Amino acid sequence: MLRANNSTLTTPDDVTLLSGITFEIHGGKLTHLHGPNGAGKTSLIKAILGIELEVDHIKNTFNSF
User: Fold this and answer.
1) What is the pLDDT confidence band of residue 35, given thresholds at 50, 70 and 90?
2) DSSP string of 25-55?
3) Sequence-distant (≥ 6) Cβ neighbours of residue 9 within 8 angstroms
4) What's the confidence (pLDDT) of residue 51?
5) Which helix (H) or strand (E) holds 43?
């Protein structure tokens, strides 16, 4: 499971892009992320993957292989 609770997405120079991020993604389930252009969808995915941005208060409990 990947879980974020009241998280904040920031850039490396400490600019806040998103705040109040709360979600739960369960393994083996299809998850849909939608929103208008410029809402931060791609930035959130990059942060989850550890590319360029950071999300605080995020917990990854997926099993690693």
Assistant:
1) very high
2) E-TTS-------TTSSHHHHHHHHHTSS-EE
3) 16, 17, 18, 19, 21, 40, 43, 44, 47, 53, 54, 55
4) 80
5) helix 41-49
Q: Which two tokens stand for residue 20?
A: 């109040």
Tell whether the torsion through CA atoms of 8, 17, 27 and 61 is positive or negative: negative
Distance CA 57, CA 65 (A): 23
**Residue 47: how many CB atoms within 10 A of its CB?**
24
Distance of alpha carbon 39 from alpha carbon 63, whole angstroms: 30
Q: For residue 29, what are its two tokens?
A: 């389930």
* Spatial CA neighbour of 39 closest among 25, 57, 12, 19: 19
The pTM of the whole model exceeds 0.85: no
> Taking 50 as the threshold, does the pLDDT of residue 47 lie above it?
yes
